[in-house]
Give the backbone structure.
Amino acid sequence: MSGLRQSTDPLYVLLRDEQVQEFNRRRPSGSACDLRGLSFRARDLRNLDASGIDFGDAYFRDADLRGIDFRNANLEGASIASAKISGAYFPEALSAEEIRMSVEYGTRMRYRK
């Protein structure tokens, strides 16, 4: 994906390296965190505290997102192609159809207006 941005942000590096517990420890719960447009391809992110995180336009192909509560995170424009999402909560602004299309076809998720 050529549109993804690069980041050396220490919090992003922790997630890229699948150090979710350390990420949660270093980031105060619910504090804003900008991870827009970054790749989390094939990463195991289970147990992530996603509250307040901006994942807009992020790429989660083949990622393990099981059980994550995204209700207070931004996922607009994100793609979750072939991701494992069982038990995950999604923002109310995302319809079930948007989520299904993204998992099955890799479409970018659009929020309802």
Remarks:
- Residues 26 and 77 are 26 Å apart (CA to CA).
- The chain has one domain: 1-113.
- The first helix runs from residue 10 to 16.
- The mean pLDDT is 93.
